Predict the structure of CUB domain-containing protein.
Amino acid sequence: MWFYFYTLFILHINVKYVNTNENEFHLFMDNQTLCNHGIIDLKNISTWKIYSHIYYHDRYMYFPDSHCSLTIRTNKRIWMSIEYFQSNSSSSFPRCTEAKYAGNDDRLQIIDGYKNGSILRIICGKDTDKRFDRTPLILKSSIFTLDWQTKSQSYGFKLKFVTYDLSIDGKCLNSSQFHCNNRRCIDRSLICLHEDYCGDNSQKSSLEAINQCPSKYCQSKASIQLLGCTSTWIYMRIDSTQDLLA
């Protein structure tokens, strides 16, 4: 009986507080109904983005003196990239990552597993700082926690998460996956979104990706010559290209 209500609680969170945009899920860490309550189950979701606050795209600042902790569960490996980060820290990066500043700075902690797990990375300061660590992070497990606290105001952050499997003997085990050069197998639906979901940009130079979604990759004469776009697409989309037709 308790398991039944627990499952309903997780599904309720997913449906009501996760916004969708085409192939992506968007989560916002200023939604106090979502924060600090249960587990967000994102199994079978290929990619999602997490923002500091719901008005991130409008360039409004996030509110001070707030705290949000999200625990997310998937069923695959995960890698994460920092697409934008700007917090108002009293100390500059990397000093703001030190424990003694924990109660005074705006900071995001990425934690392995649940909230009491080991801290994988502390993100604070501004990503324009030359010392800012923008290295993509490979999460150690399929459960992780984001802990975001604010003391003042700034423009916040945008994080991208992608789930993947590892190929075996150079092949993905699932035909619905795309094989990246770095051995990651991502959902095939992602290769037409014109972002780096592999983590090494290999989808953007793949003939398989070009054939599946040519209008995303073949947009100039230069791209035709470099990537080998199909002659059918060239004829339909580009004028005066008879010399390029097969």
